[in-house]
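Example 3.2
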Amino acid sequence: QLQLVESGGVLVQPGGSLTLSCAASGSTLDNYVVGWFRQAPGKEREGVSYISSSENITYYTDSVKGRFTISLDNAKNTVYLQMNRLKPEDSAVYYCAADQVRIKIMTMFVQTSFRAGSWGQGTQVTVSS
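Structure, written as tokens:
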């Protein structure tokens, strides 16, 4: 049973940087597609980025392209989300989710009511001065 634990969320000033971690146990992430999602108060869940190590694919939603970078460290079995040039609108609880079927992760990017795979408990990112 894959288990995910997010960490790294803090209060950061606009323009600052932050790296979130999604540490896995129970299975190796190189067999999974791992996505980062976020949800701000009163808003729907939003897909941020995903990575498929086996397919050498990464994806970013338009609002974070050029600012965020997703990566997988196989040795640490951890997926990272490096976030640069942060904006107040990036404030949200960030979740990682993993599934062995990429279409399920992709579907969660376009259907906010759809939920699949294993999820972490979330980590709060607040961008404010």
